[in-house]
Write a structure and sequence with these properties.
CATH superfamily of the largest domain: HUPs
Structural class: alpha/beta
Number of helices: 10
Helix content: 25-40%
Number of strands: 14
């Protein structure tokens, strides 16, 4: 898969215009089932038109530029993870457009000229609610009315689940309360967080439950505090595990607000410090709580472990 980074007004001439594209347009945070319907249409059209399939996404999130957000933005799928998923889906090319103040000021007409016509796009697919150009003045009706027959347009209606739209906002709300099975259903796959195994306080091994301490990738959305049944990808192999997300209240000063992600990997005893891993989240087992001593903590962790084993046996 080819990944092309574009910045207006620079870098636009670096694209090979001898290639024609069927393009899916959107931010696509999460690449959820609704997004997948848009991207599948673009891939299908690319085959019909003998063109390359492409996705155009934007970085960073427009709200950072338009809304002046000072707080950190957390993504369901940070950019590299999004690109990896698009590759798995079978997209030929991903255009990553840098979302800047200059880009945000483009008129709908200029957006179409620079990012549709000049890229030799022969078909555009987007969701019914996609907007573009300064202040979101352009919509998919605009896209069609300004085409002059230069490109085709497909508009994908909202995908619903129990009469409610499948959306990134809905997924975020489910992540905030740890509803991982709901998130799985909306994404069409388990929620995953890439990260790196780093040194922790090594307390887990002293009580018989060694854990991998995970530093999540920058900008990753971490589910609600609690204990989860997870799978972890280590050295290209998935392993079942139990993950604690939280502040370790049994051991830590309540003023210490450093969130930790620790995975006890079942039937595993390798040293994996420094390894890049992916945590796949399947089910929230319980909330995090403070125990009155090591023995009660160990007993609860064993219960959590057995519940995770049962869950994966029945999956």
């Amino acid at each position: 898969m080819n990944v092309i980074h574009l910045k207006y007004p620079h870098q636009l001439k670096e694209v090979d215009t001898s290639t024609s594209y069927s393009l899916a347009l959107g931010f696509f945070d999460g690449v959820h089932r609704g997004h997948q319907a848009v991207i599948k249409n673009a891939i299908d059209k690319s085959k019909e038109l003998n063109a390359k399939s492409a996705v155009m996404t934007f970085d960073p999130h427009p709200s950072i530029v338009l809304g002046g957000r000072k707080e950190k933005v957390f993504y369901i799928t940070p950019l590299q993870q999004k690109i990896n998923i698009l590759k798995e889906i079978g997209v030929d090319t991903v255009f990553v457009v840098q979302f800047t103040s200059d880009f945000a000021k483009l008129s709908p007409e200029d957006f179409i000229n620079y990012f549709i016509r000049d890229l030799n796009v022969v078909h555009v697919t987007a969701g019914f609610d996609f907007t573009f150009g300064s202040f979101g003045k352009g919509n998919m009706e605009t896209m069609e009315s300004l085409s002059n027959g230069d490109y085709g347009v497909s508009v994908i209606n909202k995908l619903t689940d129990d009469a409610e739209k499948i959306s990134s906002t809905r997924i975020r709300k489910s992540l905030q309360i740890g509803e991982m099975e709901e998130v799985h259903k909306l994404l069409g796959r388990p929620f995953e967080v890439p990260g790196l195994v780093i040194h922790g306080d090594k307390r887990g091994r002293t009580i018989g439950f060694p854990t991998a301490n995970i530093q999540s990738a920058e900008g990753s959305f971490i589910p609600a505090v609690g204990v989860y049944a997870v799978r972890i990808l280590v050295q290209n192999r998935w392993h079942d595990g139990v993950c604690n997300v939280g502040y370790k209240p049994t051991f830590k000063n309540p003023e210490d607000k450093q969130l930790s992600i620790e995975v006890h990997i079942l039937d595993f005893d390798k040293n994996i410090y420094g390894e890049e891993v992916v945590v796949g989240w399947y089910k929230r087992i319980r909330n995090e709580k403070k125990f009155d001593g090591i023995d009660s903590l160990k007993a609860q962790i064993e219960k959590d472990k057995q519940e995770a084993i049962r869950y994966f046996q029945n999956l």
